[in-house]
């Protein structure tokens, strides 16, 4: 309906503005301060980044109620990956926040999202530019695996701090006799992360073929 389409347009616009602000801020800071800007990336843009990622949880709801026709599982995996790495790994360990990998991760996320939300906004209005369509469904194929590698590296960097500080680790005394060593949980999640990557990459290729097939290109040109 028109109302739902307008709602999705406004949602995409808000996300576009948020990610564009982050991306522009990162570029300006890097051009102004050089490598010195990388260490405090999280402190300068972390709040807006967290707000954008929390807002992205709505995309799962959009799919569940049927106003977004995207596949649920790939989108769910992509969103939860970011939520876990951003809030559980980076946000909880101040020592990790100053690492260069955080800047690399934010750069990849925002580059992908600026393109994706731009494409989505125009698509809501029935506007399809072939270069933008190609970029939206092609750029994610090399950049998504790079972002997964950056997530994995961020988790590996955080492990010594989780081991030292015992963050999220649980050790209940008798009679419960339950313990959970969180670094082990993160190590198991690394395996899940890379298995999920294979599934999502396969889905990205399927989406690219569906939107950039010869027939679809002709239809969007006409």
UniProtKB/TrEMBL annotation:
<feature type="transmembrane region" description="Helical">
    <location>
        <begin position="42"/>
        <end position="65"/>
    </location>
</feature>
<keyword id="KW-0276">Fatty acid metabolism</keyword>
<dbReference type="GO" id="GO:0030148">
    <property type="term" value="P:sphingolipid biosynthetic process"/>
</dbReference>
<dbReference type="GO" id="GO:0030497">
    <property type="term" value="P:fatty acid elongation"/>
</dbReference>
<comment type="pathway">
    <text>Lipid metabolism; fatty acid biosynthesis.</text>
</comment>
<keyword id="KW-0443">Lipid metabolism</keyword>
<keyword id="KW-0456">Lyase</keyword>
<feature type="transmembrane region" description="Helical">
    <location>
        <begin position="127"/>
        <end position="144"/>
    </location>
</feature>
<feature type="transmembrane region" description="Helical">
    <location>
        <begin position="7"/>
        <end position="30"/>
    </location>
</feature>
<keyword id="KW-0472">Membrane</keyword>
<keyword id="KW-0256">Endoplasmic reticulum</keyword>
<keyword id="KW-0812">Transmembrane</keyword>
<feature type="transmembrane region" description="Helical">
    <location>
        <begin position="181"/>
        <end position="201"/>
    </location>
</feature>
<dbReference type="GO" id="GO:0042761">
    <property type="term" value="P:very long-chain fatty acid biosynthetic process"/>
</dbReference>
<keyword id="KW-0444">Lipid biosynthesis</keyword>
<protein>
    <recommendedName>
        <fullName>Very-long-chain (3R)-3-hydroxyacyl-CoA dehydratase</fullName>
        <ecNumber>4.2.1.134</ecNumber>
    </recommendedName>
</protein>
<keyword id="KW-1133">Transmembrane helix</keyword>
<dbReference type="GO" id="GO:0102158">
    <property type="term" value="F:very-long-chain (3R)-3-hydroxyacyl-CoA dehydratase activity"/>
</dbReference>
<comment type="function">
    <text>Catalyzes the third of the four reactions of the long-chain fatty acids elongation cycle. This endoplasmic reticulum-bound enzymatic process, allows the addition of two carbons to the chain of long- and very long-chain fatty acids/VLCFAs per cycle. This enzyme catalyzes the dehydration of the 3-hydroxyacyl-CoA intermediate into trans-2,3-enoyl-CoA, within each cycle of fatty acid elongation. Thereby, it participates to the production of VLCFAs of different chain lengths that are involved in multiple biological processes as precursors of membrane lipids and lipid mediators.</text>
</comment>
<dbReference type="GO" id="GO:0005789">
    <property type="term" value="C:endoplasmic reticulum membrane"/>
</dbReference>
<keyword id="KW-0275">Fatty acid biosynthesis</keyword>
<comment type="similarity">
    <text>Belongs to the very long-chain fatty acids dehydratase HACD family.</text>
</comment>
<dbReference type="Pfam" id="PF04387">
    <property type="entry name" value="PTPLA"/>
</dbReference>
<dbReference type="InterPro" id="IPR007482">
    <property type="entry name" value="Tyr_Pase-like_PTPLA"/>
</dbReference>
């Amino acid at each position: 309906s028109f109302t739902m389409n307008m709602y999705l347009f406004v949602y995409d616009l808000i996300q576009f503005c948020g990610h564009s602000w982050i991306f522009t801020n990162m570029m300006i800071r890097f051009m102004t301060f050089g490598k010195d800007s990388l260490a405090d990336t999280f402190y300068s843009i972390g709040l807006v980044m967290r707000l954008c990622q929390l807002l992205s949880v709505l995309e799962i709801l959009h799919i569940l109620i049927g106003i977004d026709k995207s596949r649920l599982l790939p989108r769910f995996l992509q969103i939860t990956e970011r939520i876990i790495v951003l809030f559980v790994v980076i946000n909880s360990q101040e020592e990790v926040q100053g690492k260069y990998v955080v800047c690399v991760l934010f750069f990849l996320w925002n580059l992908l999202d600026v393109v994706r939300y731009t494409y989505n906004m125009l698509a809501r209005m029935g506007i399809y530019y072939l270069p933008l369509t190609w970029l939206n469904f092609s750029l994610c194929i090399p950049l998504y695996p790079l972002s997964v590698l950056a997530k994995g590296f961020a988790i590996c960097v955080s492990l010594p701090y989780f081991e030292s500080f015992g963050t999220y680790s649980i050790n209940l005394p008798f009679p419960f006799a339950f313990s959970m060593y969180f670094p082990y949980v993160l190590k198991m999640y690394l395996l899940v992360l890379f298995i999920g990557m294979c599934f999502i990459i396969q889905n990205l290729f399927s989406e690219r073929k569906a939107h950039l097939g010869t027939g679809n290109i002709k239809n969007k040109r006409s």
